[in-house]
Amino acid sequence: MVGVAVRRGLGPSLAAVVAASLAYNFFFLPPVYTFTIADPTNVAAFLLFTLVAVLVSNLAARARSVAVIAQARAQASERLYGFSRKLAGCGTLDDVLWATSAQVAAMLGVRVVLLLPEGQAVAVRAGYPPEDRLDEADLAAAQWAFGNDRPAGRGADTLPGARRLFLPMRTGRGTIGVIGLDRDGTGPILTPEGRRLLDALADMGALAIERVRLVEDLDRAEREAETDRLARALLTSISHDLRTPLASVLGAASTLRDLDAALPAEAKAELVATIIAESERLNRFIANLLDMTRLEAGAVAPNLRDQDVAEIVDTALRRTEAMLAGHRVQVAVEPDLPALPLDPVLFEQVLVNLLDNAAKYAPEGSTVTVRARREGADIRIAVLDEGEGLPEAEVERVFDKFYRARKGDRVRAGTGLGLAIARGFVEAMGGTVTAANRPDRGGACFVVSLPVPARTTRGSIAA
C-alpha cells in the first residue's frame, strides 16, 4: 500500500487498502474463504487494520505529492536559471523578445505574443508561434492592460471577450510592455502555480528589455556626444585652417594689386609663390574634408589592381617636394618587391598624408626616411622622422579625427584629419597602419602593412 501510494498517489492507494482489507478478511479471519466475520474481536481487528492502512496510505500519498511539487519546482528553477543566462547573452531587443516568448510558451504550454509601446499605442513585436496581427478586441485589451497596469482580456474582469489574456510587464521604472497568452479549450489559461511562474518569466524578460534599452540609450548618448565633439572640432578647424591660408592669399593678392608698379620682380614672384602655396594648402584642407566625408559615409570603394609599390612611393615623393623642401629625404625600397592589389590614387594619398605629417613635426634640416621591404607575408612601408616623437599616452590617439599633437603650448597647424584618412584608406584596401616612437633615436615611425597575395609576381603589375 505504501508503495502504491508513493508511486500512484492517494486514490490508487485507497483502492489497494480496500482490496487488502477484503483479502485479509477472506483469507485470515474465520470462517476463512468467506467475507463473514464470526468473532466480534476480529471485527475490531479488521477495522483497526483498515484504519491504519488508510492513514499510512494518506501519509505516503502526501509525501509523494510534496516530492513531486519539489521536483517540479527544482526543474522550474533550473529552467529559469537557463533562461536568465540566455537573456544575459542577448544583445538586441529582438533577441530578448524572441527568447522571452519562446521560453514562456515552452514552460507554460501556451501561445504567446509580446507587445511594446510605439507612440501612443502598443504593437506586436514578437510571438511564439510567430504572429504579427491581433484582432480589435485583443488590441483593445492589450492597450487597456498597458495603460492601466492591470490584466485584461480572457479570464480577467476587464474586456473578458478577448481571445487572449494580457498582463503588463513591469520594472522599477513602470510598465514597459504587455504579454498576451492564449491556449485551446475553455477555462482559465493559468493555474495559480502557472501564474507565479509567468510572473517570474515576465519580470526577467522585462528587466532584459530595460537593460537592452538602457544600453541603446547609452550608445545613442555617446554617439550624440561624439557628434557634438566632432562638430565643435570641425568648426574650430575650419575657422582657423580656412581663415589662415585665405588671409595669406588675400594679403598677397591685395599687395600685388595695390603696389604692383612699385614692387621689384623678386617680391612679385615671392607673393605669387605665397598665393600658390597657400592655395595648395587650402586645397589639401578641402580634400581632407571630402575624403573624411566619404569614409564616414562608407563611400570609399577601392579600385584594386596590381601596382608596383616603388612607383607609388616615387609619385608620392614628387607630390610632396614642396612640403619636404626643408628636409633631407632618404628612400630605401627593397628591390623586386611583389606587386600588390592597391588603388593607386588612395595609396598615394596615404603616403602623401604620412609625409606631410612628418614634414610638420620634424625640424628643418632633419631627415625624413621612407622604407619599403617585405617581412614574412606582408610588405611594410614605413615613414620615419626625426622630430620629438609621440607622447606615450597619446600614441593610440594620433589616428583620431581632428587630433593634433602639441609642441609645448602650441598646436601644430593642420586639420587633424590626415592620419585618420590614411588609416581609413589603408583599411579599405585590406591593410593596417600603426604609429610608434623610433627605438633608435627621437622621432615617430608610421608603418603601413599590406598582405602579399598568393602567387603574385612582378610580371603581374598592371600596365
Please provide a written account of the structure.
This protein is of the alpha+beta class and 463 residues long. It folds into four domains: 2-85; 89-217, 2-Layer Sandwich (Beta-Lactamase), CATH 3.30.450.40; 243-297, no CATH class; 305-460, Histidine kinase-like ATPase, C-terminal domain (Heat Shock Protein 90). The protein has eleven helices and 14 strands. It has helices at 2-8, 10-28, 40-88, 93-108, 136-148, 192-241, 243-259, 265-297, 309-319, 344-361, 418-428; strands at 111-118, 121-128, 152-153, 165-171, 174-182, 305-307, 328-333, 340-342, 367-375, 378-384, 406-407, 410-411, 432-437, 444-451. A hairpin with a 2-residue loop joins strand 11 (406-407) and strand 12 (410-411). Helix 4 packs antiparallel against helix 6 and helix 9 (309-319) packs across helix 10. The longest helix is centred in the middle third of the chain and has 50 residues, at 192-241. The protein is elongated and about 150 Å long. 29% of the residues are buried. It catalyses: ATP + protein L-histidine = ADP + protein N-phospho-L-histidine. This is histidine kinase. It is an enzyme of class 2 (transferase). The chain crosses the membrane at residues 12-31, 43-61. Residues 237-454 form the Histidine kinase domain.
